[in-house]
Amino acid sequence: MPVEQTIPKYKIATRSSKRTSRSILNNLDWVTVLIYFLLVGLGWMNIYAVVYSPDNVVNIFSFDINSGKQLLWIGTSVILITMLLAVDYKIYEHLAYPIYGFIILLLLVTLAIANPIAGSRSWLDLGGGARLQPAELAKFATALAASKFLSNVNLRQQNMKDQMILAFITLLPPAIIILQNETGSALVFGAFILAYFREGMSPLILIIGASAAAIFILTLLVPKLYLIIAIIVLMGIAIWMDYRLMRRVKSMIALLLLIIGMIFSVDYFINDVLQPHQQNRIKALISPEADPLGYGWNVTQSKIAIGSGGFWGKGFLDGTQTKFDFVPEQSTDFIFCTIGEEHGWIGSTVLIALFLLLMTRIVNIAERQKSVFARTYGYCVASIIFFHFLVNIGMTIGLAPVVGIPLPFFSYGGSSLWSFTILLYILLAMDANRAQDLSR
Amino acid sequence: MNYLENRKYVIQAIFIVVGVVFALRLFYIQVVDSSYKQAAETNAIKTVIQYPFRGLIYDRDGRLLVENTPVYDLMVVPKETKQLDTLRLTKLLGLPLEDVRERLKKARAYSYVKPSIFYQKLTTEDFAHIQDNLIDFPGFYINARTARGYSHTSLSHALGYIAEISPKQLEDTSNYQGYRPGDYIGKSGIELEYEKYLMGQRGVKHIMVNVRGIEKGSFKDGAYDTLSVAGENLYSTIDLELQAYGELLMNGAKGSIVAIEPATGEVLAYVSAPFYDPNLFTGKDYGKNYMNLLKDVDKTMFNRPIMADQNPPGSIFKLVQALIALEDGVINPNTTYACNKSLVNCHQHPSPLNLFGAVQHSCNPWFFQAYRALINKGKSPNTFMDTALGLKSWRDQVLTFGFGQKLGIDLPGEKKGIIASPELYNRVYGENRWKYSTIYSLSIGQGELGVTPLQMANFMAIVANRGYYVTPHIIRSVGDNGKPLKEYQEKHYTSVSAEHYEPIIEGMASVVSSGTGRKASLAKVGIEVCGKTGTAQNPQGPDHAVFVAFAPKVNPKIAIAVYVEHGKWGGQSAAPIAGLMIEKYLTDTVTIKEQEKWVLSRKYLDIKSK
């Protein structure tokens, strides 16, 4: 790479700009673009299905209803896409830190001046009824900054200081977002672990994280004593299978004590650290039937809506549960219920397949990038989409706690659609120009 | 750093695993577990039952016996009650505070989101008053439906009543398919017997509602909706005027009157005394009234005409004995027996008598001897076995008169009665351990005999028809253009041929013209009544009085049985009632006013027993 850098940088880019734009369109990953428009279009139809009322039919394009407004967001997203593809792709790498800095500033300003909406101070009023949620934009900004940091040739992964800086870049935005009382959006930043894992982070962190999550959930479901006995038995089996572990008996005991400590601190964490509404979301995940009209309402109604869809679904606009407001936040966070109810298992599975296709495709795109920056950024995109996919669909079918984050490209809302569009098309822009990277 | 490229597969594998887990979970909740579909329906689809009008019941002249009147239930949806002013509600309904709280608790326990009845059967005045105030009570509304109404106070036992279906009936889905909690169902009488015609067909409307219960149009454009179909009207054989007159005559007494049109088996009057006002069972105090009547010492709820089968018929049964004896040829109209009081007690009258005189004077020794001839025909040299054979043959013939079995009237709860059988005596005395001297009281209608008033009236219809009966029934046809029910067209012939009835009828005519039944005589208005008195001993007190009759003698139009519990003398209490009923029915007026006065005074209850 250092050799390649001696080639004049801007030679190709300064050729006829017409040719460049044609080559961008030629090299654009049209499969991803197609999936993107499929998701956006299906989302739009489902948003219409949510607001559709048989006794008062409103045109799908009407700006009085969400589907009309979403169409506006989709239109502006197309303009946004054109702009993202038109500008020099290198600008993202060059401006990664300034963009990050600007967004951090925006988050802080929002925190300072925003009027609370439902307890959350994350919305910036733009005047004229338009609002912006900077937390949404923080995702791609952080992805850019982290990728930029990881692409530094002088970076040494094992360097404690570098690790600390990376952690700081990743955790600063969610820290501010938590202060804005948007814990759900903050959790998304945990997804970066997947990207870092690809870039060389020890798998141990991934395993420890997954184990900790597993123990946390098991503690809620299984009596503590049984859990501890089970872990001791597991450790015993491990030692029996590989007696060399006996030499590490001290660390084994330390690990055991750590796990037991964690098991007993779960109660403290839930009762004293989490806010009441967060406690309820945990309770709703474990036993929504305990209070179906209270904290269990969302999960119960969401499952009823999806479950009533059956194999083939009730048909477009024929759902009753989502349409008649039984499911809350149905066009944003619980949009998946509409799919489940009206299009059944077939529709839900097709949507899941579309997302899997998109995410694996993005991973493949990331892998074919020639620069560390572009590759890392690609993994960040895949990870963020995956986290939303995991939590959003998971919560509607009772596999994840209710966290108010949207389904990418699908849910109603301008900030969310823009943020994911920017996130994805920066990657596609870099991907379309990757041949130039090679030749430089 | 090449090995890191393989981590791509780890990450993609994580994606795919999550996707597959989601698809499997979705398959479970969408396809495998059907409970969510039901939950969705209860959520968003409100089924509104459209109650059909229950069929009406008319009497034989087209007068309404049973009609429908609107009633109003106060309903509550607990979820929608907001800032409920319980105190004002107590004032509005006139209920104590605890009661209101209790009712709210009950409603909540039933369902938080579904409507339940808060207060049943408001009167029309209460309804208007409460309706005006309901605006301040969100979650409460009035549900109008119809209840039974009666513009008269008669015929309660036969009409029966309707009430909410019981939990037990609801569980019995094979017999009560399609009923829902809170539905009204016939519980007794005609209402029970003809439930399937009267109930009609409920309609169901499926309405989509949103989460706040606001209606959002019909579900699938009403594809699953059904219209309600009104129940069929019933046309009864009862003459309401005659019925009411019968109840007037029996008011204050205990007993029964059953009047039948002989040729058709149509029941003209069906009195069970004491009786109650059928309106007692329609209002909001239904439960209280019902319990009061159940506890009542006079057994008001006891449906005497078809259920009082423990009482011996007394002397009226002598007619049956004579008919069978004639048929068997053991006597003829000229057979004479002396009034031998050493055989069985009797009263003063000329002796010896032929059949005509025996019926007229109800001579006990005459029937003792005639019955002995009937039972001991000498078919076996062994007197014990001969008696058993004779009794068996006699019993078979008695059954052809409809005794000892359910006649099959279209009312629930009919009893069979008892007719002595060889098996019965074998059980009591042992085989070949009993003979005529053991069973002779049967000859005069005492002993092991139990006959319902309906069976007595039916017997009179048989005599009037000279040998057959049509099953007594209280409903002639179902539906506005309905044909007469075909199960009530068949003639049931007795074992006794027609010619043997004439001498009996002559005797019965003389009973009324110059014998014990003179108080039933309508000679004054030119109607020849044929009758027979009876007295039935009973352990509870004074004798029960019986009178059976039909009239006119030629081409009879009415057959009647009157049973007055503890009426002492058939001729004194039951006979005048029968006479009055016959005149009322045949001429629509009552001329034998002295008889009416006598009956209404209840003076017959004061006559000294024999």
Q: Would you mind describing this structure in some detail?
A:
The complex is a heterodimer of chains A (440) and B (610). Chain A has 440 residues and is mainly alpha-helical. Chain A has 2 domains: 4-201 and 275-439, no CATH class; 216-273, no CATH class. In chain A, 67% of the residues lie in helices and 2% in strands. In chain A, strands 1-2 form a two-stranded antiparallel sheet. In chain A, a hairpin with a 2-residue loop joins strand 1 and strand 2 (130-132). The longest helix of chain A has 33 residues, at 335-367. Chain B is α+β, with helices and mostly antiparallel strands and 610 residues long. Chain B is built from 22 helices and 20 strands. In chain B, strands 2, 3, 4, 5, 10 and 16 form a 6-stranded mixed β-sheet that branches. A 5-stranded antiparallel β-sheet of chain B has the order 12-11-20-19-18, with helices on both faces. In chain B, a hairpin with a 5-residue loop joins strand 8 and strand 9. Chain B is elongated, with a radius of gyration of 33 Å. Chain B starts with 6 loop residues before the first helix and ends in a 9-residue tail after the last helix. The chains are: A mainly alpha (440), B alpha+beta (610). The interface between A and B is large, with 50 and 41 residues.
